[in-house]
Each structure stands twice: as C-alpha cells, then as structure tokens.
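Sequence in, structure out. Go.
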Amino acid sequence: MAGPARSTIAFAIRGPVGRSQIPDLCDRALRLIQPGLTLVALCDVGAMPADAVSVDTLARLRLGAGRRGCRLRVWNASPELCELIELMGLDQALGARLGSGAEGA
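Output:
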C-alpha cells in the first residue's frame, strides 16, 4: 500500500511587510506545510518590495519550512529583490527566481 502523496504548495505574500508583522505572517504561511508531506513551498513575492524586511521574512520562512522537511522556493521576484537576496548571501538558500513561473523549483 502506498503512503500519502507528497505535494507542492504555493502561496503569495502581497505588498510590503512591517517588521512587527513577520512572526504572524510566517506562522500563517508555515501552517500550510504538512511536515513530511509537503516537499516544496512556492512563495510568490512579486508584490514584495526589495528591502531588508522582505529578505528577513523570506529567510525566516526558509528556516521554518526546512524544519518541516520542506524546501522554500521564491519566485516572481523583482530583479532588485533578487540582487538584494544575493547581496545578503541568501541566493542559494532561497533559490529566488525572476518572472512569473516556478521554473527550476
């Protein structure tokens, strides 16, 4: 008998995030991940500004997803957000992708 199917989930973060909003936003997003079953979480960041709070949010999401056995993939990132993620040394961890698709996820 086969076990439960493993899955990919997708969610979006819309607009700027205030530093005080990060814990609640991460809690809500991470509740979507089923530990051991969700392999990849695709996070659409097309509406996020390129700032340190956005990168902090994504880093915390990445850490939380990893603790649940899930890979976080960032997609639809602006060139500016990708540059900031790279500048902060998180490009490998976050796997940010430009454009509107989830290629390479």
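Check: The CA atoms of residues 19 and 40 lie 25 Å apart. The mean pLDDT is 88.
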